[in-house]
Amino acid sequence: MFRRALRLSAAPASLVVLLLAACSQPVAPSQATRPTVSDEQMLSSIRAAGEKEKSVIDVNPLRDPGVAALQDAAEGDLRVGKYSDAATKLDQALKISPNSPDLLQDRAEVAIRLKDYANAEQLAHRSWDLGPKLGPLCARNWQTIAELRRHAGDDAGAANASKSVAQCHVEGMQRY
User: Fold this and answer.
1) Could you give the CA distance from residue 166 to residue 135 in angstroms, rounded to a whole number?
2) Using one digit for the tens of pLDDT, what is the confidence trace for 33-46?
3) Which of 55, 86, 108, 118 gives 77 a disulfide partner, CB atoms 3.0 to 4.6 angstroms apart?
4) DSSP string computed for 74-143
5) What kind and span of H or E run contains 2?
6) What does the radius of gyration of the chain's CA atoms come to, in whole angstroms?
7) Residue 165 and residue 124 in contact, taking contact as beta carbons nearer than 8 Å
8) This prediction's pTM
């Protein structure tokens, strides 16, 4: 009987030891989190891509005076942080000139400020489809797409878009 009691009491003790050992196991490291890029950092990269693009091609279409006034007013709203007001003005300008690649890209950048990332990517794609496919606007289009793909966790899509930024550049002819 003594042996039987000892055996029964040993079982719960070993169970307690196992439970305590399990509690002292190191916690598995959590999945690595992606570094987050702020909207302002994304927009800085987009603007930088357009500014550094010094290709021989830079298409600047003539602007409708009504559209130009709305664009200028939207820029003023952006300077003071009125992003939804800027979006409204650019949307009005797009009603006047719906196929304007520069307006579409400007609206995409405002969509990023409004955290409307899916719309921003669609607008950048549409801008590229309608645009010159070369020069600063092209570089801004593809950099926008690259930033948004990276933000969505699509590293392959971001890499492809980044390659497309370089294809926006056209060297000028060497003149001797």
Assistant:
1) 10
2) 556 889 999 999 99
3) 86
4) HHHHHHTT-HHHHHHHHHHHHHHSTT-HHHHHHHHHHHHHTT-HHHHHHHHHHHHHHS-SSHHHHHHHHH
5) helix 2-23
6) 28
7) no
8) 0.76
